[in-house]
Amino acid sequence: MTDPATTTAIRVHLPTHLRKLAHIGDSELTLDVPGTVTLSAVLDVLETHYPVLKGTIRHHGTDKRRAFVRFFACEEDLSHEPHDTPLPDQVVRGTEPLLIIGAMAGG
Amino acid sequence: MAGVRVLVGTRKGAFILTADGTRRDWHVEGPLFGGWEMYHLAGSPQNTDRIYASASLGWFGQQIHRSDDGGTTWSPVGNEFTYDGDVGTHQWYDGSQRPWEFTRAWHLEPSLSDPDTVYAGVEDAALFRSVDGGQHWHELRGLRCHESGPDWQPGAGGMCLHTIIQDPRDADRLHVAISAAGVFRTADGGKTWQPANRGLQSGQIPQPEAEVGHCVHNLARHPQRPDTLYMQKHWDVMRSDDDGASWYDIGEGLPTDFGFPVDVHAHDPDTVYVVPITSDEQHFPVDGKLRVYRSRTGGGDWEPLTNGLPQQHCYVNVLRDAMAVDRLDDCGIYFGTTGGQVYASPDAGDTWAPIVRDLPSVLSVEVQTLP
């Protein structure tokens, strides 16, 4: 069990629309995530720092992932994993980012 | 000198077009919110610096933005539209019952009297209100919970509440229109609602004269004669002279009575405008001629307005929220097309010229008349 008092620096990539919405200049940001590093924990911190992103990645109320949002890391699709699953070690160690992606769509 | 500010929502961002009172030379600004579907932008009648904008994307959902300086700068405000209480179900395309699910805000209607109060018509159909400048949204649940709610079903574009009409005599009196449920009205600020569809006939539903189930496309009202309402329905152009209690057909003389927008001259309650298109299966002008039709007699006697509009090879559509009028003395009228053109007439429709020709597909056009 990770000490909830400690934080881990997690690299996060956001899609352009969300970076513009939140006035985030860089394509990658670093979030200090307390406790066990899960998708939920990262998104909680992200939405705390950038409240405008509430409802854009996961739905208000249910916290379900929006249908056309994907979560990738270490060349794996984590979109369908339970959000309380710990993220891969490489993400926790900071050698790999968590990628939040707008799914491919259109034609 | 007075001027106008035209607020244009498109499939890929918003544009603001400004001109002085001559409306000859235009400044075009945009795209704002590039890439977002801008279903609607609307300014407060009480404060022209206050503008609300609805932005949505299939990927990232709904955003509402607010400007307090006439569109120069914008800030995101509240984007949480949560149905109040039991969500309930409505009819789905296959006849099954499906829970109400928020998709987007189609239409924003700032209060006639308070810049901080604004209504939002949303898909799945419901009416929300904010009294704090868009920061928080609360559903007026009496509408969605009307006894007919489980029978409402979406039109091809989704089950959307797209039109909100305020009564200048009484802030508690509203009309809304829903595709495909019809018109509902309230006299108590949204607590209770009554269908207002008597006189409508729709061949696309099992009971053509049913109380609920009509695909109403747009409504318009003139503040000087508030008991009169005009309607563009899926088919039929209609009029009510009793605040929506009953409707009669005024489409005689039009080349087709299918269309989406309807609007009224700013200074003459009897002058009304529609844009007929070929049919429900062919959403483009008849014979490739883009014609606005004007009646100066409150309907039933229509003249085509063509001067400056393309009269061959034109196959664009004009959507329900994409026509508006200014309040200058000679009443300018504006509309945008799915082909990305925005046309303006500075003389109530007699002559037209494009302001811009190559925007993304236009979803909405509103006009602010500036002091």
UniProtKB/TrEMBL annotation, chain A:
Gene3D superfamilies on file: 3.10.20.30
Source organism phylogeny: Bacteria, Bacillati, Actinomycetota, Actinomycetes, Pseudonocardiales
Protein name according to UniProt: MoaD/ThiS family protein
Alphabetical list of SUPFAM superfamilies matching this protein: MoaD/ThiS
Domain of life, source organism: Bacteria
TrEMBL record, chain B:
Name this protein carries in UniProt: BNR/Asp-box repeat-containing protein
InterPro entries: WD40/YVTN_repeat-like_dom_sf (IPR015943), Xyloglucanase_GH74 (IPR052025)
Signal peptide annotation: none
Source species: Prauserella alba
